[in-house]
Amino acid sequence: MRILVMTQFFWPETFRVNDLVEELIKRGHDVTVLTGLPNYPDGDIFEEYRNAPQNFSMFHGAPVLRVPVIGRGRSSKKLLLNYISYVVSATVLGFWKLRGRNFDAIFVSMSSPITAVLPAILQRRLKRAKLVVWILDLWPETLSAVGVVRSPVILSWVGRLVSYIYRRTDHILVQSKAFFPNIEKYAGKTAKVDYFPAWAEPIFDKDPALISTAPEMLPYEGTFNVLFAGNIGEAQDFPAILDAVEQLPRHAGIRFFVLGDGRAADWVKGEIVRRGLGDRIILLGRFPIERMPSFFRAADALLVSLKADPIFSMTIPGKVQSYMAAGVPLLGMLDGEGARVIDEAGAGLTCPAGNSVGLADLVQRLSLLSVDERHQMGLQAREYCRREFDRETLVTMFEEWLAD
């Protein structure tokens, strides 16, 4: 098939759409990618891209067509400009860059914002191709949950936009079964919607026992290490995480590590200094995904958290699948679907979102378990991930939906 992938975020940024595109190419499909300039998550255009943009024009043989965007920055104003710039560039310049190219299907990976689908709706009409959108974030509810938009009037306008987009999409895929009622609310009861969860990246396929420990973690081998990996943002509820760290006894031999970056990173750094937690929570910075298994290997527990909000309770954070595949026990401070998956798999321990006291208690409980008991949790996590989130099975389903 001739497939056009339109996504605001793509390689060298780390998103699962990269894996999906790579697998589609391996299966013989003719894929073209239209995307923006790489700047996620820290908001600045990647230096390696600025120095040699020609090195990022092909991805495993697929042409990558890029349109200019304003970097996300770390303010709400810059983030809004980033969203608008992609829509304008992908619509106007995308029209020019895609001229003369024909496609059987158009695919949009919609993590955020929903406006990123608008250029694809135009291409759907121009190319007369089926449009498939993978919904990873629910708008406008997410805007309200993270405090970006508080005005009921503006949220209502965004809701109308969401309805407009959904009703011009041929097939909607959702990362969580809990999304179905929300999608129906905006798309109507006749919309074609299917469950398409995330999977663990191929880098985690290797047996954890064969992976070497990250050298950055070697100085901390004598403590019980809890690792958070991913975006440092509003939704991850770092105030509650820091509260939990404060409540743990200093003599407990427990350390927290944060691997990643994001718009709330500067605030977290300041709070660590203000609270005097520099020896108990270590910010490691951002590393390429290829390094993740070596960091996970050094962790005794992997932390996933989301704010207490109904919209986040519907979500399965993408890191859950990666954590499970790593074979390390999970600690979850979240509600709903994410907690259900961890509990159902027997992959770790969970407490309600925002419950810093509960998280501190979970960390202590897990640290007191034997190595064999924690190892068993890791094995159960990997088995559940293989059974419920198998990449080969999911991509095959995706191919069938595109061809339908």
Largest sheet: 8 strands, mixed
Shape: globular
Q: Low-confidence parts lasting 5 or more residues at pLDDT below 50?
A: none
Query: By helix and strand content, what is the structural category?
Result: alpha/beta
**Approximately how much beta-strand content do the residues carry?**
15-25%
Task: Estimate the mean pLDDT confidence.
Answer: 92
- Termini separation: 12 Å
Main-sheet strand order equals: 3-4-2-1-5-6-7-8
Compact description:
This protein has 404 residues and is an alpha/beta fold. Helix content is 42%, strand content 17%.
Secondary structure elements and their pairing?
Layout: E1 2-6, H1 16-26, E2 30-36, H2 47-51, E3 58-59, E4 62-67, H3 76-97, E5 105-110, H4 118-127, E6 130-135, H5 141-145, H6 152-166, E7 171-174, H7 180-187, E8 193-195, E9 224-229, H8 238-247, E10 254-259, H9 265-275, E11 281-285, H10 292-297, E12 301-305, H11 310-313, H12 319-326, E13 330-333, H13 336-345, E14 348-351, H14 356-368, H15 371-388, H16 391-403
Parallel strand pairs: 1-2, 1-5, 2-4, 5-6, 6-7, 7-8, 9-10, 9-12, 10-11, 12-13, 13-14
Antiparallel strand pairs: 3-4
